[in-house]
Design a protein that fits this description.
The complex is a heterodimer of chains A (about 190) and B (about 300). Chain A has about 190 residues and is mostly helical. Chain A has a two-stranded antiparallel ribbon. The radius of gyration of chain A is 18 Å and the shape is globular. Among the domains of chain B are: about 45 residues, no CATH class; about 140 residues, no CATH class. About 20% of the residues of chain B have low confidence. Classes of the chains: A mainly alpha (about 190), B mainly alpha (about 300). At the A-B interface, helix 2, strand 1, strand 2 and helix 4 of A face helix 3, helix 4, strand 1, helix 5 and helix 9 of B. Chain B: This is Protein YIP. Chain B: Keywords: Membrane, Transmembrane, Transmembrane helix.
Chain lengths: ~190, ~300
């Protein structure tokens, strides 16, 4: 596939369409249930459980399946059984063996960064409406999504740095922080 | 026409800068000239590249300690089913440790058989002297529960922690306990139990960490979350509405089961040597509190 082809946000261009659609569905469903669940049932407990389970499934799917298949990144935690110290490992696939579809990666990073921002917005809404029971749910959602976002951008930094160092490109593509990294992901390289 | 006398009258002479530093003087020798090699290395792509790599770790992400690794390719390209199967098996292996607390029931037996076999080997080798030492050692092991528990290494299933067990059991516990609550108190009971379970897990974990246990925070939360399984049965029995009198022995048994699983996993992994009692006491309080909640609901 031509790497310079513009990345359009169309799932038909994806090389893993099922993975991508499942990923987007899980990402959006927790937000939708949180926002509109109470229109269909007045049961707080039911909405709470469904939202938490959807968030957990989304976390798992993004961490273990979508990140690996869409952008070739993965992270996990290892525990040293002797000392009990935990140790984070960030893994990225070898670019010579695995090519990353531009559409996939653009969808991935867009969804990855948009989700925590949306939950921050909902947290502000919950604070101003004094709905502290819902705020606990938003805090859980934020901690799950922010963990994934930080871990994947940490993963991606290593992947980008070693790819660029290997091919000795000019340093312009190396973004200085998360925001510019994200912007360059979304708009420049897609 | 006066103007035609000078055809270059309207010619704007180009502004020429002083190009003394652009054109080298004729009498310059090699030392006066710019070294093109030195000049380009300071501005070539290599120097800012290396500078950028160190600074490309932004403040947020560089704060995350950890190891970067290039994927080996054997598991980063595996199919979805393999990933799911491996994680489900990991969850099941943790469940098995809770269902059958092996360091209390099976582990001590297994220890004894191996040491009896060892004793037999010693007997043949060293005769009476060795046998006596072995017997003393066996008796000492049996008396010292701490030592017995600390003998085993951390089991495979607990090295890689996950939060599925804590999440699912916590949700089930809160849900089942809120079934019997009054209609207007349901959400209050649910969120109360939910918060209590997570705060309780955090407090017990903090206490183990402060006692110097060699276990990570998430790992301990994982273990305590999985050992809530017997209490989920208690909550289920409450939701089904069994009468009060049979509840007492059944719930005491279930709390004891939770505690046995907790002690066996935490102790069996050698978390806190010689201070097992003080480490698991808050665990007992935690299980008792949840058991009482099941009892009165």
């Amino acid at each position: 596939m031509d790497p310079n082809r513009p990345a359009e946000l169309s799932w038909r261009l994806s090389s893993h369409p099922i993975t991508l659609l499942c990923f987007l569905a899980f990402r959006m469903s927790s937000l939708l249930v949180y926002l509109f669940g109470l229109l269909f049932t007045g049961n707080f407990v039911l909405i709470f459980i469904i939202t938490i389970l959807l968030l957990a499934v989304d976390f798992y799917y993004l961490k273990n399946i979508a990140g690996r298949r869409l952008v070739g990144l993965r992270w996990w935690n290892e525990v040293n059984p002797q000392t009990g110290d935990s140790h984070w490992v960030f893994e990225s696939s070898d670019p010579s063996t695995k090519t990353i579809n531009a559409t996939d990666s653009r969808f991935f990073w867009l969804a990855l960064y948009a989700q925590p921002l949306l939950w921050v917005g909902l947290a502000i809404v919950a604070i101003f409406r004094f709905e502290f029971i819902w705020l606990t749910l938003v805090v859980i959602a934020l901690s799950l999504t922010v963990t994934n976002t930080l871990a994947f951008s940490r993963c991606d930094k290593f992947s980008q740095a070693s790819n660029l160092a290997g091919s000795a490109l000019s340093g312009g593509g190396l973004a200085g922080n998360v925001v510019t990294g994200m912007l360059s992901r979304l708009f420049a390289r897609g | 026409m006066a103007s035609s006398s000078n055809p270059y009258e309207h010619y704007n002479s180009p502004h020429v800068e002083d190009d003394g530093d652009l054109i080298d003087p004729d009498d310059a020798n090699l030392d006066d000239l710019d070294d093109p090699l030195q000049h380009t290395t300071t501005q070539s792509s290599r120097a800012p590249l290396t500078g950028n790599i160190t600074s490309s770790q932004s403040y947020l992400t560089s704060r995350i300690p950890g190891e970067d690794r290039r994927a080996s390719g054997n598991t980063i390209d595996e199919s979805v089913w393999e990933t799911l199967r491996r994680d489900l098996l990991a969850v099941w292996s943790k469940m098995r440790e809770v269902l059958y607390p092996k360091y209390l029931f099976g582990g001590s037996m297994l220890d004894n058989t191996t040491s009896i076999r060892g004793a037999y080997a010693n007997l043949r080798e060293a005769g009476l002297q060795g046998a006596r030492e072995e017997l003393v050692g066996l008796a000492g092991r049996a008396m010292d529960a701490d030592n017995l528990l600390a003998g085993g290494g951390m089991s495979e299933g607990l090295k890689d922690w996950d939060l599925w067990g804590p999440l699912v059991f916590c949700l089930l516990l809160s849900l089942l306990l809120s079934f019997r609550a009054l209609e207007e108190q349901k959400s209050l009971v649910f969120s109360g139990v939910f918060a209590m379970v997570w705060i309780g897990e955090a407090v017990v974990t903090m206490q183990i960490k402060l006692l110097g246990g060699n276990i990570s925070f998430a790992q301990s939360v994982c273990i305590i979350g999985y050992t809530l399984f017997p209490l989920v049965i208690a909550a289920l029995l409450s939701a089904l509405g069994i009468p009060t009198i049979p509840r007492i022995p059944v719930y005491l048994f279930l709390i004891a089961w939770s505690l046995a699983a907790g002690i066996s996993i935490l102790g069996g992994s050698g978390v806190v040597k010689n201070r097992l009692g003080i480490a698991v006491y808050p665990l007992l309080v935690f299980y008792l509190a949840l058991g009482c909640l099941c009892f009165i609901s």
